[in-house]
């Protein structure tokens, strides 16, 4: 058996014996107003040279070997090898490449820490020693960091496994980038018996050392659509002999803009953006058809459903007015719509207080809602959940480019912070909930 070094062992004994009440009331968690515990020991350990060097090696290996949605086979294998090295049990595969690892007693309470594994189809343009080795693939959304931080938390938690008052599940999921990997993990039973879940996402707008989030809706529900307007082609000098789908598509696209400006309550956040349009290429040709599409967003699933209904009605009606026909595909067979990501009030307060104790109150911020989408929302529809932003902005090392940019670069000093926060959130949750089951 591997023992803790004495300072850390004493710290964890203090941590696990301290009072930090968090009472559960289905479906939400409620948090007491008691002051947070000092979690600096976790962070100090994560920043020690040996562990920090390991954390960086893990992240760099994953970064150099990016894999796209549902094809994270080598990444999954690498994670399993690291878990084997730590002596952590796991089950797999879920949703082709997903893994669920277990630390602790195996009994309740049970909290999950989530990391997404997939990369993006982007050519990395950052010239550094550990850049992507695969053309056209890049970890440009920080998922390599997400996996690394949860593995780092695993190292911290495994050292204290015999003192944990419950169970921590590590959920490594595929296909966050449009593939709804979380949905498929849920369908295959990956989060059965899990009572709450926590996740971090890196944020290039937030400086390294800070975190941010908000209670309630954090990220939007999202969907995609493609419309085809069918007319009858002809020569441009004889428009009366044709049925022009370009005119119908133009009116439809302009009318779609009114769904937000004239049909949505100004205090509600919604987006309808047409992002592409294509037809035949020719200066003297009226095409047979026009294809266009884009994205729709709302801070509620109900709002998203209403937008989808009205998008279909508007495109079909404008097509009829211009003597055309239309078909609209919301692409649900290849890209399931994402629900909004809802932070449970109790889980949000729990993470906020742990974060304040770990990083200081001045480093924990209130985030505005964001119209981006995350498949973490699928978890949040089922169990109490919290997602927080982890700051990585550090201009001095080039860590400021936006997510999904080929120039995206990550300040690795954020990695031990994320690892320590995951671990501290988990330990405090188990401690606070243990009295319900023992």
TrEMBL record:
Stored Pfam families: M20_dimer, Peptidase_M20
Entry keyword set: Hydrolase, Manganese, Metal-binding, Signal
Binding annotation for Mn(2+): 141, 143, 177, 201, 404
Signal peptide: 1-25
Textual note on the cofactor: The Mn(2+) ion enhances activity.
Protein name (record): Peptidase M20 dimerisation domain-containing protein
Essential cofactor(s): Mn(2+)
């Amino acid at each position: 058996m591997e023992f803790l070094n004495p300072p850390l062992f004493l710290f964890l004994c203090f941590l696990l014996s301290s009072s930090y009440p968090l009472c559960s009331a289905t479906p939400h968690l409620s948090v007491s107003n008691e002051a947070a515990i000092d979690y600096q020991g976790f962070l100090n350990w994560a920043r020690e040279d040996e562990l920090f060097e390991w954390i960086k090696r893990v992240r760099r290996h994953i970064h150099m070997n990016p894999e796209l949605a549902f094809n994270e086979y080598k990444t999954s294998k690498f994670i399993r090898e690291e878990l084997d090295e730590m002596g952590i049990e796991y089950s797999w595969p879920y949703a082709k490449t997903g893994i669920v690892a277990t630390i602790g007693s195996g009994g309740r309470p049970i909290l999950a820490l989530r990391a997404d594994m997939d990369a993006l189809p982007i050519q990395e343009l950052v010239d550094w020693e550990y850049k992507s080795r695969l053309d056209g693939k890049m970890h440009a959304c920080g998922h390599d960091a997400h996996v690394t931080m949860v593995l780092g938390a695993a190292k911290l938690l495994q050292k204290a496994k015999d003192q944990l008052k419950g169970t921590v599940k590590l959920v490594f999921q595929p296909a966050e980038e449009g593939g709804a990997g979380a949905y498929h993990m849920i369908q295959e039973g990956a989060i059965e018996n899990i009572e709450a879940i926590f996740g971090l996402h890196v944020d290039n707008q937030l400086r390294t050392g800070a975190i941010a989030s908000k209670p309630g809706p954090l990220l939007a529900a999202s969907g995609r659509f493609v419309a085809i307007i069918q007319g009858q082609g002809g020569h441009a000098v004889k428009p009366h002999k044709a049925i022009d789908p370009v005119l119908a598509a133009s009116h439809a696209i302009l009318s779609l803009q009114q769904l937000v400006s004239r049909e949505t309550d100004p205090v509600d956040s919604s987006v309808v953006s047409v992002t592409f349009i294509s037809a035949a290429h020719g200066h003297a040709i009226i095409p047979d058809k026009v294809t266009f599409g884009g994205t729709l967003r709302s801070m509620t699933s109900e709002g998203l459903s209403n937008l989808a209904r009205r998008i279909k009605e508007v495109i079909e009606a404008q097509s009829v007015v211009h003597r055309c026909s239309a078909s609209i595909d919301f692409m649900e067979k290849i890209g399931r719509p994402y629900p909004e990501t809802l932070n449970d009030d109790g889980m949000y307060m729990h993470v906020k207080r742990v974060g304040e104790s770990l990083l200081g109150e001045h480093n924990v911020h209130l985030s505005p809602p964001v119209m981006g989408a995350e498949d973490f929302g699928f978890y949040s529809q089922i169990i109490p959940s919290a997602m927080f932003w982890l700051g990585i902005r550090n201009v001095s090392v080039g860590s400021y480019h936006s997510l999904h940019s080929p120039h995206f670069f990550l300040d690795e000093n954020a990695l031990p912070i994320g690892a320590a926060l995951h671990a501290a959130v988990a330990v405090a949750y188990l401690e606070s909930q243990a009295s319900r089951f023992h």
